[in-house]
Amino acid sequence: MKAVIRTIGAVALLGIGGLAQADIYIGGGGYVTSIDAAGAALEDDGDFAPAIFLGWRPLEMVGVELGYYDLGSYDTGGGSVDASALGLAGLLSMEVGPVGVYLKGGLASTEISAPGGYNETNSDPFGGLGLTFDLMDKLYVYGEALRFTHEDADIDVIGAGVRYTF
C-alpha cells in the first residue's frame, strides 16, 4: 500500500512540476472579416477588425484561450450591422522546430447589433486552424482562419498577429 501511495505522490509531483512550466501568453492581431447572413441585404460583406487574447498552455500540445474578436461592421444601406464575439477555446498544437500548427475550437458569445434596436447575443460554436512561427524565444507571429456562427450568419475571419509568452 505504501508503494502505491508513493507512486501516486511521485506522479502528482511530476504533474505539478509540469504545470509550473506552463506557458501563459497574450496576443493580438488584425483580421479581415466576411459575413454570410441568410436573408440579409448587405451592401458590403467584409471589414478589417482587431482581436486580443489571453492563453494558457499547461502542456506543450494543449492549451486554453480567452479572446475578444471585433467581427466587423457591415453596411446595409440603412445603417450598419456590427458583430463581435468573446470566445473560450481549447487548442491542440504541434511544433516542429520554429513552426507550429494548431486547431482551435470552443464557444463564443457572439453579439450582432443592427439598426432599429436589433441586438442579439447567442452562445455559438467557433473554430479554425492556425500557424505560428517562433521569432525569438518568447515572441511568435501567427496566422489563423476562424469561423464564428450566429443563428443564420456565418462570419469568417482570417488574420495575423503577434503572441508573447511569459
What's the quick description here?
The protein is mostly beta strands and 166 residues long. It has one helix at residues 2-20; strands at 23-37, 46-59, 62-75, 80-96, 99-114, 118-134, 139-150, 153-165. A hairpin with an 8-residue loop joins β1 (23-37) and β2 (46-59).
Keywords, separated by commas or semicolons:
single chain, 166 residues, Porin, 8 strands, 11% helix
Molecular structure report:
The structure is a single chain. The chain has an 8-stranded antiparallel β-barrel. It has one domain (22-165): Beta Barrel (Porin). It has one helix at residues 2-20; strands spanning 23-37, 46-59, 62-75, 80-96, 99-114, 118-134, 139-150, 153-165. Residues 10-19 have low confidence and may be disordered. It has 1 helix and 8 strands. Strand 6 (118-134) and strand 7 (139-150) form a beta hairpin. The chain has 166 residues and is mainly beta. Helices cover 11% and strands 71% of the residues. It is elongated, with a radius of gyration of 20 Å.
Unreliable spans = 10-19
Biggest sheet layout:
8 strands, antiparallel, barrel
- How many β strands by DSSP? 8
Element-level helix/strand string:
HEEEEEEEE
Q: What is the CATH architecture term?
A: Beta Barrel
Give the CATH class.
Mainly Beta
